[in-house]
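In keeping with the milestone schedule agreed at the kick-off meeting, the structural modelling team has produced records for the first pair of proteins. Each record is given below as a sequence line and a structure-token line. The laboratory manager (R.T.) confirmed that both were archived under the project's standard naming scheme.
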Amino acid sequence: MSFQVKEPVLVIGLGGIGSKLAIDAKNSLNSDCLIISNDKNDFVSEIPSVHVSTESVVNPSVQLIRGSTYKVAEEIKSKISGYSTVILMSNLAGKAGSAIAPVVSEMCKEADTGLVSFAIMPFKYEKDRIFNSGVSLKRVRENSKCTIVLDNDSLLESNPDLSPKACYEIANSAMMHVVNSLGSSEISNETSILSTSKDGQHIEDSLRDSLKMLYGNAPPNSVKRSMLYVVGGSNIPVGVINSITNLTAGIVNESNSQIDMTSSSSAEESKVVMVSSIQGMTKFDNYDPLGMIPQENTLDWSTPDCSIDCELDLYQLE
């Protein structure tokens, strides 16, 4: 089944990267926007926002930011109320994104609001962020109608010559292509992997890198359906488009492939952006060592881990 985007639509951005993506998505969809962050520098004057205050703590943990988010839960719920669809933009490699995303997605589920979640996962060398990102993604997937995941690490593996900044730019651009198509393309009601390539490549090389990125996240037999966005399609020879369509159909199963054309002004920008729905395990399930435990056997699933100030006067005994 596919998810249907219904108006009115609210785009929510979490933290620094999420807020930038949300503002771009707002302009593209002509929708409302909300920014939620523990850092006031992420806010834009004309965009509604919710500040998650950690008070005097300069470098708060993910758990502290999450606990502080619950303190402003009613304010967030009031701003979400009345919308049929929420599009959540979060960078789960960042503290704010991984802390706040499970809380906001939980609120959307409780309000029976259609939630489309976009999540960016960390690089492999960001070892201190991998666990928290895996825990957050598991909860976001559980609360969302559909979740679209882009893995920075697999993008870098496919293009080891790229800098982290270049990876961010490619990832952001790919996510915007999918956002732009929400009104005209169907998104699967499951977890989907977003894959792409760097600019300036031949279109067939771009497809190869997109597939390599996809299979770096999930085994080939787990791919149920793939949609190709051919960026700059109006400038690409029809024979080439037919070639990559046949190639993709042969790899991911002909009945499960679909191609969607998006226009672009210059041939140099031509590349492939692929969205593939996944059934079964992905590599992100291994980010949380306890993630294999079924939800029904988990005692503390209902509320994600967070730090709260109980204000208990406990004195040290010696």
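The second protein of the pair:
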Amino acid sequence: MPVSEHPSNGHGQTSILQGGGDNRRSFWDHFQAIGVSGVLFGANGGERRQFLFALAVIAMLVVAGNVSNVLTVHHDAPHYGFFKPILWEASSAITLLAFVWIPWLALRLAPLRGQPIWRTGLVHAAGIVSFTIAHVAGFVLIRNAVYLAVGEPYGIAPLTSEFFYEFRKDALSYLTIVAIFWVTGRLKRTETTQAISSVGPAFVDIRDGARLDRVRAEDILAVTSADNYVEFVLSDGRRLMTRKSLSAVEQELGSHGFLRTHRSWLVNAQRMTALKPEGSGDYTVELGALNVPLSRRFPEALSKLRSGRR
């Protein structure tokens, strides 16, 4: 979460973690355990907010376009009335928004920077085909169901011609959606960077029972989960534990350059000294003498570490 939302410790320094935490696991912890959320959302609250903001922008554009299409059809072919054009456009909009996660997921698997061009191309080509299939199948099912309910046949064109007609439009929609996600992601990172620079050095309060340790965020090399606790690995060799979930710590430290590289690890990207491939798409992140795993399930973290983006 942005630093500007964090409470101050009274000395002009931001204290990021407050309270002792607990051992409750959120939905995103369980989702992370099956290895999906690291690819889709990174279990990062800021990224989920960015996704929802981009989704709202996409929804407004879709609604505006569909209203325009309904009015155009009604003007050019008034014998259809309003019911059928509204059904056609609404069914298309519903399925498009229902599967907007496909371009989002493809962008996370193959970011537009920091990846080989061939890999980016293959991932997004598969994304366009998958998006078109899902979109066409979805609106055809909805239209058939509504037409059946009112006792009319839905005269769909042959599947091959319908698919390739829609493919051209859906390819453009897919690329537009990817562009919106990319732009909103860049804006979010810029906003976060400006927020960090405006509040000065960040401190972390780490509670273990009655004991409170206050450390600079920049002095934390990595954070790892340990049963119902998380362990902070510090640059001076200390290891401090507190009762908290790793996903909660990620939400609090994500705006300070910490990246989820494994379902059990966060790393301070600014302290990385080397990145070593381990085969099968996995890596080891070296932070001085500390080695942390980087799973292939977290491609955006790999991209950011390679490119130096946070």
